[in-house]
UniProtKB/TrEMBL annotation:
Keywords: Amino-acid biosynthesis, Aromatic amino acid biosynthesis, ATP-binding, Kinase, Nucleotide-binding, Transferase. Its EC number is 2.7.1.71. InterPro entries: P-loop_NTPase (IPR027417), Shikimate/glucono_kinase (IPR031322), Shikimate_kinase/TSH1 (IPR000623), Shikimate_kinase_CS (IPR023000). PROSITE patterns: SHIKIMATE_KINASE. GO terms for biological process: amino acid biosynthetic process; aromatic amino acid family biosynthetic process. GO terms for cellular component: chloroplast; cytosol. Residues 301-315, 327-339 have a biased composition (Basic and acidic residues). This is shikimate kinase. Its main location: plastid. Catalyzes the specific phosphorylation of the 3-hydroxyl group of shikimic acid using ATP as a cosubstrate. Pathway: Metabolic intermediate biosynthesis; chorismate biosynthesis; chorismate from D-erythrose 4-phosphate and phosphoenolpyruvate: step 5/7. CDD domains: SK.
């Protein structure tokens, strides 16, 4: 069955996607490619067929030189962020002011949000995208539209590996686009190839404790979170759903922590780490923290670049023979004659 993703994409620049493991055959359009803001020529797209290698793939887009050189923000551990702002109107205005600064500094570089389930990537991503006037894309939503079924169905019927393949295809397709905010799946950081796609933009990790993330995930429900709803016998003596969720969350986070730590920025979700009932800061506060951290980082980068231009080379002692400028043959002959 063909599915036209008009809801997420445009009607033009269509491509075909086929996956042998997922029982779907879908027709999709390349997101935003027809928009004049992203002048990205598309290659002819055909499904890859035949043999045992009949796998789904979204062909690589042709990248312009400026997109290959997209500037990223160096990794930074963000600490000492401003206190939460209680007045929503003041917070909104501060976000708009920060977004205006960051938008000019980013020069069209995209933003990828990573983090565990329950970290609020989609909600925060929409707020950040709105402030920056960037389009927002959710990779999980795109996968469901491409597959024509829910993520839970893909996990149940085809397994996690099939889902991860679709996830990589979506990230590969989104890689060339500038000035977008992308919310990724919780496990997108595990596959090394996905980092090759996301590092064309700024990668931001929304980080929280397993307890906080579990409270948030359970509040929203686990039906759409296959990795949390499947216990796998890890906590057979769990007293309640929360205890089981925390144990599962800790295991997943320990497996992924090294990958999450590769992000350019880390944004904390907590409001009061000492509060056992804390469900984290409001999405608008987290979005503000993200923009503030990014603005500060970009300013520091600019200062460091300027400082690096102001240097002076001073000679101390004799240069090693390998660094000395040797006289030309004519100069050597002249020196020998004068001696």
């Amino acid at each position: 069955m063909n599915v036209l993703l008009e809801a997420a994409f445009g009607r033009h620049d269509t491509c075909l996607l086929r996956d042998s493991s997922c029982r779907c055959f879908v027709q999709a359009s390349s997101p935003l490619a027809h928009n004049h803001r992203w002048k990205i020529p598309l290659l002819a797209r055909q499904p890859f067929r035949g043999g045992t290698a009949n796998r789904s793939r979204l062909p690589l887009l042709h990248l312009e030189a400026q997109q290959r050189r997209a500037r990223t923000v160096p990794r930074a551990q963000i600490e000492g962020l401003d206190e939460p702002i209680a007045d929503y109107g003041v917070l909104t205005q501060k976000m708009q002011d920060l977004a205006a600064e960051v938008q000019g500094q980013l020069e069209g570089t995209s933003i990828y949000l990573v983090g565990m389930m329950g970290s609020g990537k989609s909600t925060v991503g929409r707020l950040v995208a709105s402030a920056l006037k960037y389009p927002f894309l959710d990779s999980d939503t795109l996968i469901e539209q491409l597959a024509g079924c829910t993520i839970a169905d893909i996990f149940r019927e085809e397994g996690e590996e099939s889902f991860r393949e679709l996830e990589s295809q979506v990230l590969q397709e989104l890689m060339p686009f500038k000035a977008v905010v992308v919310s990724t799946g919780g496990g997108a950081v595990v596959k090394r190839q996905n980092w090759g796609y996301m590092q064309h933009g700024v990668v931001v990790w929304l980080t929280g404790s397993p307890e906080l993330l579990s409270r948030r995930a359970l509040r929203d429900g686990t039906a759409s979170r296959p990795l949390l709803s499947q216990n796998n016998g890890e906590t057979p003596q769990a007293a309640d759903e929360y205890t089981a969720a925390v144990a599962r969350m800790k295991n997943i986070l320990s497996e992924r922590h090294h990958a999450y730590a590769m992000a350019d920025l880390q944004i904390p979700l907590e409001t009061s780490p000492s509060d056992p009932g804390d469900v984290g800061a409001a999405p608008a506060v987290v979005a503000y923290r993200l923009l503030k951290a990014m603005s500060d980082r970009l300013k520091r980068d600019a200062t460091e670049r300027e400082a690096a231009k102001d240097f002076e080379i001073k000679q101390s002692g004799e240069l090693p023979e390998s660094m000395r400028i040797m006289p030309s043959r004519e100069e050597s002959s002249s020196i020998e004659r004068s001696e």
